Amino acid sequence: MNAPERNTAFFTFDNSYARLPERFFARLPPTAVKAPRLVRINEALARHLNLDPDALASEEGVAVLSGSRIPDGADPIAMAYAGHQFGTFVPQLGDGRAILLGEVIGRDGVRRDIQLKGSGRTPFSRMGDGRAGIGPVLREYIVSEGMAALGIPTTRALAAVTTGEPVMREAILPGAVLTRVARSHIRVGTFQYFSVRKDHDAVRALADHVIARHYPEARETENRYRALLDAVVTKQAALVAQWLNVGFIHGVMNTDNMSIAGETIDYGPCAFMDTYHSGTVFSSIDHMGRYAYGNQPGIAHWNLSRLAQAMLSILGDDEEAAIAEAQASIDAFPDLFEAAWLDGLRAKLGFEKAGSIDFDFAKDFLERMADNEADFTLVFRRLSMLANEPGQADESVSELFNKPADFHDWAKAWRKRLNHEMSTECTRQAAMKAVNPAYIPRNHLVEEALQSAHRDDYEPFEDLLAVLARPYDGEQAFERYAKPPRPDQVVHQTFCGT
Ligand code: AMP
Ligand code: MG
């Protein structure tokens, strides 16, 4: 393993996780690569993090972003964690191909991790090579940035570089490294790692770290660890509701892929649904459909129960009290989720005021969409443009339904419901367009960008990122990006590529 040289300041690091006890991680540098080459710097994000995009794009900067040089102030570590993978507990996972360089404070005062993903083997690599291919790296770049622009909590992509080294997958691919930015990389599985080892001191130290970093308000409460659990439950309920309301399918909701800070993390075989169906699965490794679109709330609930279990040693004075706290916290999830989901759907339907029929009303609409193989994103986007009175434009939505009457029938009830609103047609349309995106990272567009990148043509990748940066604008010029795939463009499966 080549030891990278130490080099100049690119980041102003303050590394709080690396100050935790040694058993929380393995301390090691990333592995230098043969021929680092820049694919892209996220300039806006760099500035937001108080970083100089030009310095990052320089030869030295690219060496840093490839793991070939260690920037001043970095304290590189691979984090330890465990996790339930497809329901089976694995007591040791950890960063097998990622190195946390350190933490920076952004212009917004928020502390964030700077992590290299695909940066070489670590003690947690098991059989893996510690590397990533260009396809999965760019996929994560596109989808995480798309999610951020949609307003959904997510890790971000600061940069992508190629390594000049091949990686062996189903085919030989160019190797790449993603620089990932997260509020933290602490997962449900991080708590599980210490809990399964009965290391209660570590569970407490981890919880204290998380409270200080993400949930300081928990300190003001009587049982701060219960307050922490409640906060994570609430954040995850809101997050999964947001996923559902844009048609996002994470694909690998293992407990090691669920962030304690409530961000979407670890973009593997994730995908956006085109035609609406709650059973939609894309991931090639999800044979049972465990992580299907409509199962995501239930899985989040299950994962949070694993978190509560891992925190039992700190939740109460004795076991009985701890179990009662855990149960009460977890039991709140279904209602929190449903409220967040329904709030989101109301906004999508143009309702400002909550009405008692809204739940059944929204469900009915979704069922009609499922029956009619209607495109989820396009239906809501076009619905936003409809007038409060029936007209020609209604066809623009009904043509997305196999049986147009199924839409027209529902639209009558929708307009009746709109009569209970105070908003004018104009403000309603603007409000709906602000929550119903024209552009999402559709699978066929992502695939097209990745295929071009494999041929060293990054233009489609750049063009797609530019469109996804303003998902609610809906400019006519980008019409192609708003359309569902033609039958020959439909992507049926997505792969981890790990
Ligand atoms: P994921 O499915 O990406 O969430 O990864 C699950 C676990 O496998 C994590 O501990 C990863 O760090 C590890 N892993 C995935 N791909 C590789 C790889 N190519 N080399 C080493 N470890 C890996
Ligand atoms: Mg993972």
Furnish the topology, listing elements before pairings.
Blueprint: E1 5-7, E2 25-27, E3 37-41, H1 43-48, H2 53-57, H3 59-65, E4 69-71, E5 77-79, E6 83-85, E7 88-90, E8 98-105, E9 111-117, E10 132-133, H4 134-150, E11 156-168, E12 172-182, H5 188-196, H6 200-213, H7 224-246, E13 248-249, E14 271-272, H8 296-310, H9 312-315, H10 319-331, H11 333-349, H12 358-371, H13 376-385, H14 394-398, H15 404-418, H16 425-433, H17 443-454, H18 459-468, H19 479-482
Parallel strand pairs: 1-4
Antiparallel strand pairs: 2-5, 3-11, 6-7, 8-9, 9-12, 10-12, 11-12, 13-14
Description:
The chain has 498 residues and is an alpha+beta fold. Among the domains are: 5-185, no CATH class; 189-340, no CATH class. It is built from 19 helices and 14 strands. Strands 3, 8, 9, 10, 11 and 12 form a six-stranded antiparallel β-sheet that branches. A two-stranded parallel ribbon has the order 1-4. The chain has a two-stranded antiparallel sheet with strand order 2-5. The longest helix is centred in the middle third of the chain and has 23 residues, at 224-246. The mean pLDDT is 96. Bound molecules: adenosine monophosphate and magnesium ion (MG).
